[in-house]
Amino acid sequence: MTLNKLVLPPKKLHTPSVQQSHFSKDMTPLYWTQAIQELATCDKVMHQLIRQFEDAALTSRGCAFTTLARSIVGQQISVKAAESVWQKVIRTIPDMTPHTIAAAEQDLLRTCGLSARKITYLQDLSRHFTEGSLNETSWIDRDDETIIQQLTEVKGIGRWTAEMFLIFHLQRPDVLPLDDIGLQRAISQHYYDKQPVDKKTMLELAKPWQPWRSVATWYLWRSLDPLPVAY
Fold first, then answer.
1. Using H for helix, E for strand and C for coil, what is the string for 139-182?
2. Which domain holds residue 71?
3. Is the entire prediction scored with pTM above 0.85?
């Protein structure tokens, strides 16, 4: 196997505070420029991908419920398929809120291409929001693992979905979703001659990316799909 990676002396990186705001006016992380500069310096593949996709960046949709709902819709299907299903959902229910999803007939949601299980998950998510057990203001000062623990109490939200929420909505900079099939495939393709990789290997490879593993993950996703990944 060939490891396509620069070997550079360790460098002290800035670690963003959980409490600080990460958003610019266009909902792109404020840390993005610093992150891509440091990633391009420490990793040959990152340097290439950042140059290839220099006009793109991770963005937040600004709505916690929408981000989690899109993550549920996207479970275990391709980015393209998830986008197709989501577009059908919002055409059917243009006013996408916890209340409208909770009130929607299951047959209506099924016509959008949602499985019975995903419909159950979406309606349980809606209930948590309408009852107030998911409160966006409470996440500001909490660390990543605490938020993951809270979100995974919702039916249908596992660690992967919670990590998508951390990356895309809260825009936490240092999330590495080891269970993500796309990330596994991209790492295999770009670093290990398309050979399978395990989680231990992924963690070791990603050490130089800290504290910007979310950004590195986004570029690896971007290398696989014609559409930018978004939730």
1. HCCCCHHHHHHHHCCCCCCCHHHHHHHHHHCCCCCCCCCCCCHH
2. 64-151
3. no
